[in-house]
Write a structure and sequence with these properties.
This protein is an alpha/beta fold and 668 residues long. It is built from 22 helices and 28 strands.
Length: 668
């Protein structure tokens, strides 16, 4: 049964002659799961099948390169420039269709964003020459000849023909984010003075020619064109430009426009937003393009909840709503929203863990959903050990995930937490400004915990005797880490506090109004976030870091780091003192020593330490000596992100259940 609150979102839609069961679209996202030859793999089929089964109407398969020789953007990118890869696409299309979704293929050429190590000649193609950086000479990209342009137009057409043979029912041209089509359209990168550049009409010629060739190949099947409505780059395209351009794309043959934003070279934070981006912030751009273009529009970006999607359709912002990262967090987003189970949607918090591991070449993944990219893994089952005791120590993200997965596998799980509440590092991570979305995930885990069979013990620090009897199948150590001990005189003073405990909710540190500045010691992610947290309270902050200011928050996720550093630089309440360490704390007098050896005394009413944390291996050592089975995960194992802790939990339970799985013998 459909929840009436979202009746427009789940109403059918016609795109040309194509009937789509609802207004939900899976946005194209690189999975990094393709073979090294660009072929569809079983892992990709399982990944897409799960999202099709999860309730989307239109599923746009990730960017598929039309010319590997010069256009491949990633080592494990799909391609469809030869018939050799056709069979995999046929199987993928069949899997998507079986689940009731419409398969759509996105066609792409990397252009300037092609991976130079993978392409012939090592110099990417673009509309214009781009000089090499860092003074090495040569070209970062070279201008294409007219013959090369015509060749790539044909590549788009040939890939579309192969896509038709595979059974795709719709197609999308990737004309956004700095790839080849968008680089010809943008004055930022197209500086040609021939028929393929110059004024706006000249810059439109290559996209329009590619559109015409693809339309010739696909017949009456719908063609979607993805645009960056605003590149957010000086000299690039803005929304006013796109209001003029969109009708020209329609005149060239486009049936719908997929409205994204940003440019991968200059404004990646507008392509893949950080947590600080407001819910639905791109919708006004979609509305303006829709009004100008007069065709169906797909809105995408920072749409996390069904009410946002429903309201966008009701207001006329868009005709269809694309979800990207939310479908990594929860493939069942559509089904859950349709039946009204909003609170059961595993929420995407825009933490960009998916982006981090993707850039590292580790394939698709999600901090909250370790099954993403691993859909072929068998369900966890304790087998003959069902009902066996499993103990988890520490109720942070890794511990909560471990306890819930152990319970689901059939173990008798108990979860011990030394504090009076669950959450651990999730609480601290959600405390700084603009990171409150992490509370969505914590609330989700609490709801899952409440309806599970996990035995929860708060304010519990189990000793060896309690852990030993009755003997557990596994003891999972997920109790986080402790602050690094520093050789600083006066560290035990009343004005010194652990920054982590402050983010966990400790209020005892707060100074009286009008006091001296608060000194935060540590230029890592935790220190910078603590400084912003304190400044948000209206207190002056002295942020002292041993590293250069350019290295502030250097371990943070790249997109988040860019916007975080910009906020710190613009914050009048935060003074950064770099290349400096603390040598002594005496009351409100703190002695600093700079990298040149000079010292100075500053006044600070509080000193908040954020110099890193390290695992406490004491309990692990005692368990090893006692001969008890244990596993160490998350920060208790090594410092990392929320997704690392959750993945540790997943791999631990997977390994535990693997010992109970029946062996199979092949018949060949």
């Amino acid at each position: 049964m459909m929840d009436a609150r979202y009746r427009n979102l789940f109403s059918p839609f016609r795109l040309g002659d194509l009937s789509i069961r609802n207004r939900l679209v899976m946005a194209p996202m690189s999975t990094g799961l393709a073979s090294l030859t660009g072929a569809v793999t079983p892992q990709q089929i399982a990944f897409y099948r799960a999202r099709a089964a999860g309730g989307v109407g239109l599923l746009i398969v990730e960017f598929t390169c039309v010319q590997r020789k010069f256009g491949i953007s990633e080592r494990h990118q799909l391609s469809l420039d030869t018939v050799e890869n056709l069979d995999g696409h046929c199987r993928l299309v069949a899997a998507i269709r079986r689940e009731g979704a419409v398969p759509c293929l996105q066609l792409q050429h990397g252009g300037m964003a092609a991976k130079r190590q993978l392409i012939e000649g090592g110099v990417p193609l673009g509309p214009s020459d781009v000089p090499g950086s860092r003074g090495e000479g040569g070209l970062a990209a070279r201008a294409m000849s007219g013959t090369e342009i015509e060749c790539i137009v044909e590549c788009f057409g040939r890939a579309a023909e192969l896509g038709v043979a595979a059974g795709y029912e719709a197609f999308e041209l990737h004309g956004a984010h700095g790839y080849l089509l968008s680089s010809f359209l943008s004055p930022l990168t197209n500086r040609r003075d021939d028929a393929w550049g110059g004024d706006e009409e000249g810059r439109l010629r290559f996209p329009a020619t590619a559109i015409a060739r693809v339309k010739q190949a696909i017949g009456k099947r719908p063609l979607i064109y993805r645009v960056s409505a605003d590149e957010f780059a000086p000299g690039g395209l803005c929304i006013e430009d796109m209001e003029r351009i969109a009708p020209r794309l329609v005149a060239a043959g486009v049936d719908a426009i997929h409205v994204s934003t940003g440019n991968g070279w200059h404004s990646m934070e507008k392509v893949v937003e950080p947590m600080s981006a407001p819910e639905g912030w791109r919708l006004p751009y979609a509305r303006r393009v829709k009004a100008a273009a007069g065709v169906a529009v797909i809105a995408v970006g920072q749409i996390r909840w069904p009410e946002t999607a429903e309201d966008a359709i009701v207001r006329g912002d868009a005709d269809l709503i694309a979800l990207g990262r939310p479908l990594l967090a929860d493939p069942e987003w559509g089904n859950k929203a349709r039946r009204g189970d909003r609170d059961d949607i595993r929420p995407c918090t825009s933490c960009n863990y998916c982006n981090t591991i993707g850039l590292a070449g580790l394939g698709i993944g999600c901090a909250e959903n370790p099954l993403t990219g691993r859909e072929l893994d068998l369900p966890f089952d304790a087998g003959s050990r069902r009902g066996a005791r499993a103990v988890v120590v520490g109720a942070g993200p890794g511990g909560l995930a471990a306890a819930l997965m152990l319970d689901a596998a059939g173990y008798r799980a108990e979860l011990h937490e030394s504090r009076a509440m669950v959450g651990g590092g999730l609480i601290a991570s959600a405390a700084p400004p603009f990171k409150d979305k992490l509370n969505w995930y914590l609330d989700f885990l609490k709801r899952r915990l409440a309806r599970s069979g996990v035995r929860m013990l708060l304010q519990s620090r189990p000793g060896l005797a309690a852990l030993r009897d009755p003997r557990p199948e596994i003891i999972v150590l997920a109790a986080g880490a402790s602050p690094v001990q520093l050789p600083i005189e006066g560290l035990d003073g009343d004005s010194v506090f652990d920054a982590y405990e402050i983010l966990m909710g400790d209020e005892s540190w707060r100074p009286q109004p009008g006091s001296a500045p608060v000194l935060v010691y540590g230029g890592g992610e935790a220190g910078v976030e603590t400084a912003e947290y304190v400044a948000e309270l209206g207190l002056p902050v002295l942020l002292v870091t041993r590293s250069p200011a350019a290295k502030l928050a250097r371990s943070a996720e790249l997109i988040y780091r860019k916007v975080l550093r910009a906020r710190i630089a613009a914050n009048q309440g935060i003074q950064v003192v770099d290349n400096t360490c603390i040598t002594r704390i005496a009351g409100e007098v703190v002695t600093l020593r700079s990298s040149d050896g000079s010292t100075t005394d500053v006044r600070a009413c509080r000193v908040l330490l954020a110099q890193g944390r390290e695992p406490d291996r004491g309990l692990a050592q005692r368990l090893a000596e006692a001969g008890l089975p244990f596993a160490v995960i998350g920060d208790n194992r090594r410092g990392g992100r929320i997704g690392d802790a959750v993945l540790d939990a997943y791999e631990m339970v997977k390994a535990l259940c693997a010992a109970e799985r029946p062996q199979r013998e092949l018949n060949c």
